């Protein structure tokens, strides 16, 4: 029996990108999937395409409405009696310079990417404590390791996740709860298409960096290997992830290199 077989796995942001690819891969491995995002229509379409669709659960969820979190968890436990892993994968990106970005957009990105994320984790923690185990997988970004053009609020929200979950990981060792922080680089998903511009409108453009990025299926294979090994943090991507190491060991060189990179 493989690691994921018969595990109840809650995937936030399941309707597209990394979340959708996780659903396909995990259902093929025999996992029981709870699919959540705001796009309920897409979730139901996706469920029908998964292996053994009748055993999975569609649970629409909006990360800006934290009152939905507890009833959602109750429905999961009432249906399956447990929750093994949560992929806290929902989020929203940005494509605008600081000088062009309204504070409302900054706040909305932080509300979804940070406060919605940690509120959901606070919701599931008591269940994990009661079970005596659990796994929390958090999708950060390479932008959580350094700032980059047009992503000030997005990068800030991802930096915040690192501080929060590194602290939580230390606290929850005694409770047999594992934390894995994912740091994808350039992955071929529609994240740039859904990103917000400075005025709050949708960017609605597939950036070159995403279009030429790592196939999302390969990204998910690397994610699932890291989660199975309960790694604390994992960088996923192509050559762009080298920037993390260059910044750590050669910071002056890093700043010379990074300012020459294309923003999109």
How would you sum up this structure, described in words?
The protein is of the alpha/beta class and 264 residues long. It contains nine helices and nine strands. It has one domain: NAD(P)-binding Rossmann-like Domain (Rossmann fold, 3-Layer(aba) Sandwich). Helix 1 crosses helix 7, helix 4 packs parallel to helix 5 and helix 8 crosses helix 9. The protein is globular and about 50 Å long. The protein starts with 7 loop residues before the first strand and ends in a 6-residue tail after the last helix. The relative contact order is 0.13. The model has no long low-confidence stretch (mean pLDDT 97).
The CATH topology assignment is Rossmann fold
> Can you tell me the number of structural domains?
1
**Which H/E pattern describes the elements?**
EHEHEHEHEHEEHEHEHH
**How is the main sheet built?**
7 strands, parallel
CATH architecture: 3-Layer(aba) Sandwich
Structural class: alpha/beta
- The mean pLDDT is 97
Structural features:
264 residues, alpha/beta, Rossmann fold, two-stranded parallel ribbon, globular
Write the layout of secondary structure elements.
Blueprint: E1 8-12, H1 17-28, E2 32-36, H2 40-49, E3 57-58, H3 69-80, E4 85-88, H4 103-131, E5 134-139, H5 152-172, E6 177-184, E7 187-188, H6 208-211, E8 214-215, H7 216-228, E9 233-236, H8 242-249, H9 251-258
Parallel strand pairs: 1-2, 1-4, 2-3, 4-5, 5-6, 6-9, 7-8
Helix pairs in contact: 1-7, 4-5, 8-9
Short description:
The chain has 264 residues and is of the alpha/beta class.
């Amino acid at each position: 029996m493989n690691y994921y077989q018969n595990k109840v796995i809650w995937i936030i942001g399941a309707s597209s990108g990394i979340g959708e690819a996780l659903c396909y891969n995990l259902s093929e491995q025999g996992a029981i999937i709870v699919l959540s995002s705001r796009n309920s229509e897409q979730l139901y379409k996706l469920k029908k395409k998964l292996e053994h669709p009748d055993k999975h659960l569609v649970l629409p969820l909006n990360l800006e409405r934290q009152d939905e979190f507890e009833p959602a968890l109750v429905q999961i436990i009432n249906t399956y009696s447990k929750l093994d892993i949560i992929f806290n994968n929902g989020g929203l990106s940005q494509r605008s310079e600081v000088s062009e970005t309204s504070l409302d957009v900054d706040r909305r990105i932080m509300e979804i990417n940070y406060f919605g994320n940690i509120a959901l984790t606070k919701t599931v923690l008591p269940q994990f404590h009661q079970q005596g185990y659990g796994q929390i997988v958090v999708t950060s970004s390479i932008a959580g390791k350094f700032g980059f053009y047009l992503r000030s609020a997005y990068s800030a929200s991802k930096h915040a996740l690192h501080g929060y979950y590194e602290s939580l990981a230390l606290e929850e060792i005694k409770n047999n709860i594992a934390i894995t922080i994912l740091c994808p680089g350039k992955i071929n998903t529609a994240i740039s298409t859904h990103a917000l511009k400075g005025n709050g409108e949708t960017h609605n453009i597939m950036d070159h960096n995403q279009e030429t990025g790592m196939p999302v299926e390969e990204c998910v294979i690397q994610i699932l290997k890291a989660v199975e090994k309960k790694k604390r943090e994992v960088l996923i991507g192509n050559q762009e992830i080298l920037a993390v190491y260059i910044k750590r060991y050669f910071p002056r060189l890093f700043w010379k290199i990074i300012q020459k990179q294309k923003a999109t």
